[in-house]
Write the structure tokens for this entry.
Amino acid sequence: MAASEAIVLGRAAFGERRWREAYEHLAQAASESPLHPTDLELLACSAYLVGRETDATNAWTEAHHLLMEAGEVERAARCGFWLSLTLLLSGDGARSAGWLARTQRGLKEHQDSAAWGLTQIIAGLQQMGSDPETAADTFAAALALAERHGDADLLAFGLLSRGQALVQLQQVAEGVPSLDEAMVTVISGEISPIAAGIVYCAVILTCQRIFDLQRATEWTAALDAWCSAQEELVAFRGQCLVHRSELLQLKGEWPSASAEARRACDWYEEREQRSSGRAFYQCAELHRLRGDLDAANEMYRRASQAGFEPQPGLSLLRLTEGQTETAAAAIRRVVNESGDRQGPGGGLARTRVLGPYVEIMLACNDLEGARRGADELAEVASETGAPFLVARATEATGAVLLAEGDPNAALAALREAWRAWQRLEASYESARVQALIGCACRQLGDEDTARGHLDAARTVFRRLGALPALQRLEQDIGASDASASSELTAREREVLALLAEGHTNRQISAALHISEHTVARHVSNLFNKLGVSSRTAAATFAHKHGLA
């Protein structure tokens, strides 16, 4: 079959990773005359990479049929593998299973092959939800075939999948090296472009799941560079944008995080991608944190419509709206459904809802429930040692201790959590803990230190635009101050007013015609009632509340 000019141009563009040009030339050639299976494979790959998934499916299907007719069973099986995998990733499980069955049937006499190993990757992925131990064994068998036949794509998928299975089995220390080795195959350029993109995104998601933020940040930067080097690349762009937004949010760069999340939503909407739920959820989270509650409601709704669980964010939104009982009912349901820590939905995934669960239980004064959640979170954090999880668990423990009336123990835990969040450069989380530290110091009568932490938290919330957190902080401070002010006697108010004007005890004694000893007693009572430890702090309180 003579190669047309379009085929030649398409092959050249493909070799130079100009995916859009490769797709257009090869599609043109296909419209003129039937393509050879090799060119159909190039067409399928370039079509997938520029977001033309239906064209990719059609090209792989045609190539599979031609290769089977030609007796090239293992090459045909590779087309079947890509069909099954891409359909599975797009949410079409039934068609994916159908292609897996057809591909495996064609390989009955070729089970000692790399192609058979690729089908084992799909089979293992299907087993992951219900039986991760069996899945890990299936992936190990696929890895053995990869090493025996020297197949780079199979090796990358085997390492990735084995690492994911071990993580799901809570064998994180054993699973992470497999993920790192899978990434080595990507960085070295040993594997096909679709395999590279899939491994990138899957490793980042797994790192986020185990709260390994350092690895997630490093691999997200690498994925961003990889995508940017291929300007015509469309596949994986949406995931890349969402990953970047999540990490920017943690670092306190909320405007940039919002921009990336909106770009991801726009990207998915233009292509009607089924995997858009995570992008909508990320947009909803940023709207919630900044107090745009109507927009947050809409984005959580769209995430749910796209098949993405809008929790725990939706429960936290209801709490922000003042619907405490609604929030509590929803988060209790989510925690209960997450199941036993050894079962599906348990383990590390469960920890994503425990922090919000503790926060909501404290808001509805369910101290027993909050304590259970904090203890479980601390247990998992101790087992994994993940810095993010340790910070979250220690914060939860400190918040519960504070609510239980033990400010000394709370302060120790909260200071540890504050240092942990600072090491992660998580400004919003650090400010949340500073607000709790301020409350603990106030309960201990150290008003100066309390004011320092509360003012620092207020500054961060204002910079971020975290309006709900800022409003809660102002309400808590105002409620505490109002309570203290209402406890003052008329004489104590008089003493406070003169103290705020800078008078000494002797001058106050003369002005009010009382002894200096009595003035000293009133000043001591003022300090206790206002929760301050200095005349300066008492004067500040008086001026703030119009008592001077």
